[in-house]
Amino acid sequence: MTFTEKYEQLKETYAAHADFSRVKEDLAAEITLTDPDCGGTFYVTCKKGKHEIAPYNYYDSTVRISVSSALLEAMLQGKKDPVSEFLLGNVDAEGEASHALALIDALRVKKRTRREHCPPAEDRAPKTERRAKTE
User: What is the CATH number of the domain that holds 24?
Assistant: First the structure.
């Protein structure tokens, strides 16, 4: 997979569902994918709750992150902890660490709530019918 293909995949998967509403500060992150086959750099900026993602270097970034694409995806999916991975040396970050964590949190895939798993009450059978079906 080329960098362009990996960048587009990451952008479609995570940026489309990103929630930057909780990011209070302006941030600019330059992210370098360290993979030998799809390595490259892209940036994510957030200003006043609006974000932009583009496959270029960003020279005035507030944080620079170097990470493999697989680890980045695992952190965005919530399978890996960004702080632990940084402490283990699997992620390099220079600059405002709080901006790196805010970025991961904004891009992270949100878990569905119980309410999203359950159908609305009007679509469910009454309790008496549900009991009768199980007996």
Answer: 3.30.1050.10
Q: Which of 16, 43, 5, 14 is nearest to 27 (CA)?
A: 43
β-pairing verdict for 27-33 and 50-54: unpaired
Of 47, 64, 50, the closest CA to residue 15 belongs to 50
Report which residue type is found at 74: A
- The partner residues of 92 in beta bridges, in order of sequence, read 66
8: amino acid identity, one letter: E
Query: Domain span at residue 102?
Result: 3-134
Give the pLDDT of the chain (135 residues) as one tens digit per residue.
899 999 998 888 877 777 888 788 889 999 999 999 988 999 988 888 788 889 988 888 999 999 999 998 888 888 888 889 999 999 999 999 888 888 888 877 665 444 444 445 555 555 555 555 555
Q: Which of 104, 109, 105, 103 is nearest to 26 (CA)?
A: 103
CA 100 to chain centre: 11
Q: What angle do CA 78, 113, 44 make, to 5 degrees?
A: 40
Count of structural domains, the chain: 1
